[in-house]
Amino acid sequence: MEDNTQEVENLSENKSKSEEPGVQSAADIRALNEKIQKESAFIDLINREMSKVIIGQKDMVERLLIGLLSDGHILLEGVPGLAKTLAINSLASTVQGKFSRIQFTPDLLPADLVGTLIYNQKQEDFHVKKGPIFANFVLADEINRAPAKVQSALLEAMQERQVTLGDETHILPKPFLVLATQNPVEQEGTYPLPEAQVDRFMLKVILDYPKKEEEKLIIRQNIARVKGEKPQVVLQPEDIERAKETVREVYMDEKIEQYIVDIVFASRNPEEYGLSRFKDMISFGGSPRASINLGLASKAYAFINRRGYVIPEDVRAICHDVMRHRIGLTYEAEAENITSEEIISEILNTVEVP
Hints:
two-stranded antiparallel ribbon; 15 helices; 11 strands; five-stranded parallel beta sheet; Rossmann fold; alpha/beta; Helicase, Ruva Protein, domain 3; 2 domains; globular
C-alpha cells in the first residue's frame, strides 16, 4: 500500500492545532500507519478463508469484522437463506472461537438464554448451568420472535458483558460478538425491539439477494458431490483482543470528530443544517451512542483498509449502518414514504466534509 505522504502531513498539521494528546508529528503518524499495515495483515487471511464458503455478501463479512474489531454487536435484517448463520459460523472457525446459535421463539425463557441454577440432591446445593450466551460468537436468530424479557436478558448481557446467576456474576468470554437477525417480511407473531434496545446494536445491516453470477456459483457449490473447503483457523481469540487495542490507536483528527458530531446533530436538529423539510419527519435522532459507535466503526473501517488514520470516506462508508436504526420517523414521514436511508443520505450530502 502506498504511503500517502501529503495526506499524512496534512493530518499532522491538523493535529498540531488540537489540544488532544496523542500523535504529534507526520513521522509519528507514518510510523502508526506502518504498524497498522502490518498488524492488519490477518484481515486478508480471514477474507480468504471466509470466501471458501461465503460467495458474495462482502459487505456483510466486512461489517462482521467491524463489529468484532470495535467490540460492537450487529443487527442483521434480511430474508431467510442469505448465509447469515453460515457467515458467523465461518468467522468463528477462522478465529477458533466458540459459536452458539439460539433460535428465538415465543415460548423462550431468559433461563434458556443465560442459564440457571440447578439443585444437586447429593451435594444438597445449587450449581450453575451456563446457557448458550457463554460463547464468543452468538447468533440470535429472529430476535423479534421472543418476548421482551428474553430480549432484555440478551441485551443486558451485550451491554454489561456479564451474567448474574443467583449470587454470582459470570464474565462472558472475550471476544464476544452478538449477531441478531430479523426477518423483514413476516411480522405476524413478533415482538418488535423498542428503540432503546435497538440502540444497543452498533450496526444495523440490510442484506440483499446475491447477484446472478454469485447465485450460479452458490448453486454449483451446494450441489457438488464433494463439498468445498472449510475455513481454517488463522488466529486465536487473544489475537483479536490485541487487534481491538490497535484499532483504538487509529488516528482520528479533530476535524473528523467534528464531522461525526455534525452528522449526528443534523439527525436531531435538521433545521440547523438547512434540512428544515425533515424537521417534522424525525421524531428523534441519533443518541450519543451513535457518535461513539460512528467513531469506533470508522476506526475499524480504516484498520480493515490497512490505514492508520481515519478519512471522511470511512465515516461516510459506515454511516448508514450506524445511523439507520437510530432515527425515529413520524407519521408524516411514513405518509410521504420518507425512509431513514433517504434522511441519512441527505444529511451526508448537506453536512460539510472536512
